[in-house]
Amino acid sequence: MAASHLPDSYYASILSESARSRRANPIRKVYHLENEPGVISLLAGKPNTTMFPFTSIKFTVSPTTSPDYPERIRTGQPLKSEGDQRTEIELTGQDLEEALQYGQTEGSARLLDWLHGLQEHLHGRSRGEGWRMSVGVGSQDMLYKAGTALLNPGDYVLIQAPTYAGVIAMFDSLKCNLVDVPNDSSGTRSSDLRNILSSWPADRPKPKIFYNVPFGCNPTGITTTEQRKREIIELSREHDFIIFEDDPYFNLYFGDAPRPPSFFQLEKSMPTKDGSPNVGRVLRFDSFSKLISAGMRMGWVSGPTPILNAIDMHSGISSVHSSSLSQAMLVALFNSWGLDGFDAHVRSVSTFYRAKCEVFAAAMKQHLDGLAEWDVPEAGMFFWFKLLLPPGPDGESDSSDLIQTKAFKNGVLALPGIGFMPDGRKTPYVRAAFSLLDESDVNEALRRLRETLLKDREDHSGETSAIPVAERKIW
Q1: How far, in Å, CA of 363 to CA of 223, rounded?
Q2: Which residues of 124-153 are buried (b: 16+ CB within 10 A; e: fewer)?
Q3: Quick one: pLDDT at residue 472?
Q4: HSE-up of residue 369 (Cα within 13 Å, Cβ side)
Q5: Helix H segments across 275-323?
Q6: How far is the C-alpha of 163 from the C-alpha of 187, rounded, in Å?
Q7: Residue 84 within a domain
């Protein structure tokens, strides 16, 4: 279906005071004019590239398809070997000069062209629909700048709970009030979101933003269903808020069912009930950190042009732009792969993490059955499990002391769930990452956690008979 986007004037009223008052870097504002044919530029104080010591930069990449990842993981074989076929890529000449020089604030034109093709390929979104993209120093950089562009101190933010701990700290730094929207195994509970908004106090401005991680959510591992996403989009139109779709694990989906469409895709496919514009309420954040390299610090945001303009104005007076070298390496890599090669790499990565997840799930069953409860994730890198702990003095169970103190003393490190609760409430949940460890380390870590849990139970009950003899022997 065709996209009809909200007018630029709509966003003028929702930009923050900071964004509206920010002055553009006068050089950055006209930087693009250097590319006009026939122009001799005296504009920017760029260093002369002949003085850079690099004459070429060469790198090699491994094959994009590795169908034997599950077997290699299961048997403990190296995931990369000298016998693997590799591709050599070299940056020289004009490509190298651009990689070593200052660039456009929003990102290099060649990378943005490739990313536009990718967004059309993955999400069915085309140019000319009132949106554009900017590249940043990871999606966290873009999230912070987007938050700064839209939020004033005291504003309310709807946020899935539990949620990514880093964004809780970000919204706190912007002095926002966070409103928890509970999750379940299907994602954010849209019925709860509706209830929150329907009963919103008349004397209080409604939230401008709903934040969520729809695939393999950090920390819960939950993937939000298409139906829930459709319901949330309808609510965004009814109650006039922007959806922050933070999606670094989109390409790490390994569920058996087809991957659900993104918010970014769905808003275009859903007509409005009154015929008003149907797109312009999703700000989508993507990252190459989990797919290509975390250290390259490459992420990007797609969304309404006025909000992207505000983000770029922020970048122009802070980071100036993200690494030109990282961008050039990505362009060279993607040109070598093409979309087919990119898709093959995504399949390889998702196959890899599915195998890792299966190893962790089997170890959870072996060591924590009866001591914890969990759902097996369909994307991402995390298990979120509820420890079956006795209630504390206030009647609530909490994993903090057991995980931070007792389990750590027993040689296993994980994160208690309290750090992922926007309101900081107690919780018996724990987040464990399964992305790095091999099978033997996974089993040893969960064996130590089991040992800790059993010892904790005995300390609380004082009744060794409540624990089977075979289990008591472990510690």
Answers
A1: 22
A2: bbeeebbbbbbbbbbbbbbbbbbbbbbbbe
A3: 27
A4: 6
A5: 305-316
A6: 11
A7: no
Cis peptide before 304 (omega within 30 of 0): no
Which residue matches tokens 């299907």? 186
Contact (Cβ atoms closer than 8 angstroms) between residue 405 and residue 455: no
Let me know whether 256 and 306 are in one domain: yes
Q: Is residue 442 part of a domain?
A: yes
**Using CA atoms, how far apart are residues 86 and 417, in angstroms rounded to an integer?**
41
> In 3D, which of 141, 144, 133 has the Cα closest to residue 108?
133
* Same domain membership, residue 464 and residue 423: yes
Closest by CA position to 137, among listed 297, 294, 296: 297
Tokens of 245: 């779709």
Whole-number average pLDDT of the chain: 89
Same domain, 300 and 376: no
Nearest to 133 by CA among 307, 7, 320: 307
- Tell me what pLDDT residue 172 has: 95
Tell me: do 14 and 123 sit in the same domain. yes
- Band the pLDDT of 38: cuts 50, 70, 90: confident
The domain in which residue 41 lies consists of 8-46+102-322
* Cβ contact 215:247 at 8 Å: yes
Q: What is the mean pLDDT of residues 126-145?
A: 93
**Contact yes or no for 379/254 (Cβ under 8 A):** yes
| φ, ψ of residue 382 in degrees (nearest 5) | -130, 145
Q: Position of tokens 């401005």?
A: 205
CB atoms within 10 A of CB 422: 22
pLDDT digits (tens, 9 = 90+) for 253-296: 999 999 999 999 999 999 998 888 899 999 999 999 999 988 88
Q: Does residue 475 surpass a pLDDT of 50?
A: no
